[in-house]
Each structure stands twice: as structure tokens, then as C-alpha cells.
Write a structure and sequence with these properties.
The protein has about 260 residues and is of the alpha/beta class. It has a single domain, classed as Rossmann fold, CATH 3.40.50.720. The chain has helices at about 20-30, 40-55, 70-85, 105-130, 155-175, 190-195, 205-210, 230-240, and strands at about 10-15, 35-40, 60-65, 90, 135-140, 180-185, 250-255. It has a seven-stranded parallel β-sheet with strand order 3-2-1-4-5-6-7, sandwiched between helices. Bound molecules: NADP nicotinamide-adenine-dinucleotide phosphate.
Length: about 260
């Protein structure tokens, strides 16, 4: 088992209870990585970690609200205690708390979106950078909406634009340590966030993908395609396995339209 591409590597993946984060966690574990996962839902995390246990990988799975700095610090301290080093951070968790107009938005939810989507990745990365070494990777999940906002969902758009800039700035600082920092834009992907599902009403990716294309959200061009989360995990795996000297400070989009 030592010859798998990620054998001996430690990956931290936020928002790994479902959707894209779950797909990345399972893919990285299948490729040999030990993983540290967080999300708020302990039930969803337990389901993911039991699959990873069966793969015979080490999995630390903690219920963490990324908007809570103490919980984030505790998560990172536990990671350092357990593993001593981190090779990959995937800042995947994202809050999409409002979809209405700027005028109707709730200032508290607007700010909470920044706490989860911007300060969360900042704190995770800030706490763990000291235990990352040459060849490590940081992958930040953002959105096409962080490039061209359109109307509504202002907090989400602003938060993703900020995370794009965090990626670029950090890449410019970490190149000398050979730590690559890149942005991954999934494009439309069959998850609860995409589906705007209420808690407890989440459908599987297969159920979402099986529905008639006309039932999918408006605003996507006809040539856009909704992906399975495993397709995003494929690309995260590709980024995680670039050799030293690979791309950094880049934006990789799986969308089928210009950002
Ligand atoms: N799906 C798409 O079409 C699409 C398109 C563009 C970008 N993205 C981005 O891709 C990333 C993954 O999205 P997804 O579609 O996979 O969403 P998802 O299926 O809804 O999963 C989101 C994950 O993040 C966790 N999370 C949310 N708020 C959190 C918080 N405050 N603290 C800790 N964990 C939290 C959720 O768990 P809990 O709720 O249990 O905390 C869940 O595990 C996000 O950054 C999203 O913005 C997705």
C-alpha cells in the first residue's frame, strides 16, 4: 500500500461531510492519504470517516464551525498533535447563506458568510503553515461568482473574490518554500449547495443529475454541464500530485464558460 500516489501524506479538507469535500476526502484517502476532516454535521462526518476507516487510513474528523475561531484553532491543534505535519490543505467548505438582493440582505448573514468563506480558510492556513514543508499544496475552492458576480447573493460573490486574492497573495509568498497555492473553481456541481437544498432534504449527486436539464437553475448557458463531485475530486487530485516546481497562484476552472 506504500506505493499509492498519496501514501504517507496528510490532507486537511474542510467541509468534508458531503458534496465536493466528501468526494475529495474519499479520493485522497483511496490514493493513500491520511486525512483530517471538518464540517458542522457530526453525522455526515461519521459516515465519511467510517468509509475511510475501512480503507485502513487514519482519519481525524471533528465537528467544527469555521466561523468560530476557537473551534478552528482546536481543530488545527488536534491535527498537529496527531499527525505532526500537513502536506495538503483543501479549503473547500463554503457558506451560501442568502440568494436575494443586496437591499434585502441581512447584515449578520452577510458578515457570517465572510467569517466562513474568508476568515475560515485564513485561520486554517495560518495555523497550519508552520507544519507544512517543501512540496505541500494549498487548494482553495472558489467560484465563477468570485469573478463575475451578476445580481443577488452579494456576500457569496464578495467572499469568493476575496479568497481568490488570498490564493494569489499567498502563492507569491510561499513560492520560495515550494508550497503551491491554487484556486479551483468547480463550476456547477451536483451538491446540496448547487441544489439549494434545505437541511435534511439533500439529494444524492445521482438524483440531481438524473433530473431533466430544464429543471436545473436558470442562467447557465446551454453548453454548461452539471458535474458529479467526483469529477472535481479528480482535478483536486491532479493539483495535489503536481511535482515541486508545478503551477502556483493559478485559477483552474472546470466550468464550460469564460469566468
Ligand atoms: N456545487 C457547486 O455548483 C459549486 C459551484 C462553485 C463553487 N462551489 C464551491 O465548492 C465548495 C463546496 O461546495 P459544495 O457544493 O460541495 O457544498 P455542500 O455540498 O453544501 O457542502 C458544503 C460543506 O461545507 C460544510 N460547511 C458549511 N458551512 C460550514 C461551516 N460554517 N463550518 C464548517 N463547515 C461548513 C458543510 O457541512 P455542514 O453544513 O455540516 O457544516 C458541507 O460539508 C464551496 O466552497 C462552494 O462555494 C460549489
Amino acid at each position: 500500500m506504500n506505493d499509492l500516489p498519496l501514501s504517507g501524506k496528510i490532507a486537511v479538507i474542510t467541509g468534508a461531510g458531503r458534496g465536493i469535500g466528501k468526494a475529495i476526502a474519499l479520493r485522497f484517502a483511496r490514493e493513500g492519504a491520511d486525512v483530517a476532516l471538518c464540517a458542522r454535521s457530526q453525522k455526515e462526518l461519521s459516515e465519511v470517516s467510517s468509509i475511510i476507516d475501512r480503507l485502513d487510513r487514519t482519519c481525524l474528523a471533528l465537528s467544527v464551525d469555521l466561523a468560530n475561531p476557537e473551534q478552528v484553532k482546536n481543530f488545527c491543534d488536534r491535527i498537529i498533535d496527531k499527525f505532526g505535519a500537513v502536506d495538503m490543505i483543501v479549503n473547500n467548505a463554503g457558506a451560501y447563506l442568502e440568494r436575494g438582493t443586496f437591499e434585502d440582505s441581512d447584515p449578520d448573514l452577510w458578515w457570517r458568510t465572510m467569517e466562513v468563506n474568508v476568515r475560515g480558510p485564513y485561520l486554517i492556513t495560518h495555523h497550519l503553515l508552520a507544519v507544512m514543508s517543501q512540496g505541500s499544496k494549498i487548494i482553495n475552492l472558489t467560484s465563477g461568482k468570485g469573478y463575475s458576480a451578476g445580481a443577488n447573493s452579494n456576500a457569496y460573490h464578495v467572499s469568493k473574490a476575496a479568497l481568490n486574492m488570498m490564493t494569489e497573495g499567498l502563492a507569491n509568498e510561499l513560492w520560495s518554500r515550494d508550497i503551491d497555492v491554487n484556486t479551483l473553481v468547480p463550476g456547477p456541481t451536483a451538491t446540496a449547495t448547487f441544489d439549494n437544498a434545505s437541511p435534511g432534504q439533500e439529494r444524492t449527486p445521482e438524483e440531481i443529475l438524473a433530473q431533466d436539464k430544464s429543471a436545473l437553475p436558470k442562467g447557465l448557458p446551454a453548453w454548461e454541464r452539471v458535474k458529479h463531485p467526483d469529477e472535481v475530486a479528480d482535478f483536486a487530485f491532479y493539483l495535489a500530485t503536481r511535482p515541486v516546481g508545478g503551477p502556483t497562484g493559478q485559477i483552474y476552472s472546470l466550468a464550460r464558460r469564460p469566468l
